[in-house]
Amino acid sequence: DVKVTQSSRYLVKRTGEKVFLECVQDMDHENMFWYRQDPGLGLRLIYFSYDVKMKEKGDIPEGYSVSREKKERFSLILESASTNQTSMYLCASSSPIFEKLFFGSGTQLSVL
Amino acid sequence: ELKVEQNPLFLSMQEGKNYTIYCNYSTTSDRLYWYRQDPGKSLESLFVLLSNGAVKQEGRLMASLDTKARLSTLHITAAVHDLSATYFCAVVYGGATNKLIFGTGTLLAVQP
Q1: In whole angstroms, what is the distance from residue B33 CA to residue A33 CA?
Q2: Who among B48, B92, B105 is closest to A42 (CB)?
Q3: Quick check: B107 and A53 in contact, CB under 8 A?
Q4: Beta bridge partners of B98
Q5: In chain A, which ranges are continuous DSSP H helix?
Q6: How far apart, in whole angstroms, are the C-alpha atoms of residue A64 and residue B45?
Q7: Per residue in A55-88, is it b (16+ CB within 10 Å) or e — as a string?
Q8: Per-residue DSSP letter, A83
Q9: N or C, which terminus of chain A has less Cβ within 10 Å?
Q10: DSSP string for residues in B50-99
Q11: DSSP character for B1?
Q12: Whose CA is closest to A54, among B99, B90, B30?
């Protein structure tokens, strides 16, 4: 069974902390994505990666960075967490031509 | 830049009734997805529409795509309570690299 696994279902962090959200896929997909989901705003693309060590900014990259050292793993980094980064974070992966797209179960991050 | 708009944002309907959710997008795309999300859960793929005139059906849901009008519809036939969820459309946007842009979602509440 194919899987996109996000390391934490719930996280609570303090303002100013450095936060790592991890995502691992087992489908050998080239494309990986990080979205955040907020009520009334839908899913907004933060960053995506189309190959190892390759990354591109999405629509709302400010305050975030990413790392893709291995094909199966895509990490989202909040350098200094702020309360407005409290959100649901969703990771996804796909083949290059988007024939299938799979989502992880999400990480609900609360920054206090 | 691609914009994806869904309407309505919220839909309350009675069991047994029919209704349609609309998804408009602003630039050319040849691939559109519909997803379902239950509260607190991740996204579940419903349909992938790949060409103009494509129509797909699963149970009480039917999706169609008109690439010339840049419009997709998700039609609900004889709604049942189990269909209550948030429905998202998403469009592949090609530039230097492809990315997937989501609409804001339609919250569907089916009342007994």
Answers
A1: 16
A2: B105
A3: no
A4: B94
A5: none
A6: 27
A7: beebeeeeebebbbeebbebbbebeebeeebbbb
A8: G
A9: N
A10: -STT-EEEETTEEEEEETTTTEEEEEE-S--GGG-EEEEEEEEEESSSEE
A11: -
A12: B99
Looking at every residue in chain B, the average pLDDT score rounds to 90
B24 Cβ under 8 Å from any chain A Cβ: no
B51 vs A65, residue with greater confidence: A65
pLDDT tens digits for A16-65? 999 999 999 998 999 999 999 998 888 899 999 989 989 999 989 999 99
Q: Which residues of A touch B48 (CB under 8 A)?
A: 99-100
Residue in B with minimal Cα distance to A5 = B42
If you count them, how many residues does chain A have?
112
Partner-chain contact A98 B31, CB within 8 Å: yes
Out of B31, B88, B100, closest to residue A42 by CB: B88
Closest of A106, A87, A110 to residue A4, by C-alpha:
A106
